[in-house]
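Per reviewer request, we include the raw input and output of the structure prediction for the construct analysed in the revised manuscript.
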Amino acid sequence: MKIYHNPRCTKSRETLALIKNAGVDVEVVEYLKEVPTREELKLILSKLHIQPSQLLRKGEAVYKEKFKNSNFTEDEWITIMLENPKLIERPIVVKGNKAVLGRPPENVLELL
């Protein structure tokens, strides 16, 4: 199991705690420091069954200042998220061919 984690995020910390409390080994990727590759992000999106635009954190200042009301392609949104990883919704938990967003943290229970 792998979690794309931001230790400053309450939901991310709560999701990680649920995983650890279940006794599951988990690889923690602090995605703001270790930004996923384009291929990795595409794979995550396919496992989540969502489009890149659905993974955006639209409340972030950088989104509001630079990208709000913009009409980008889904591939362009991937580039934007890789260049601005704060825009990637968190946490993302991946296990095998499945992934969930830890919003709410209890979503991770379906992978445990």
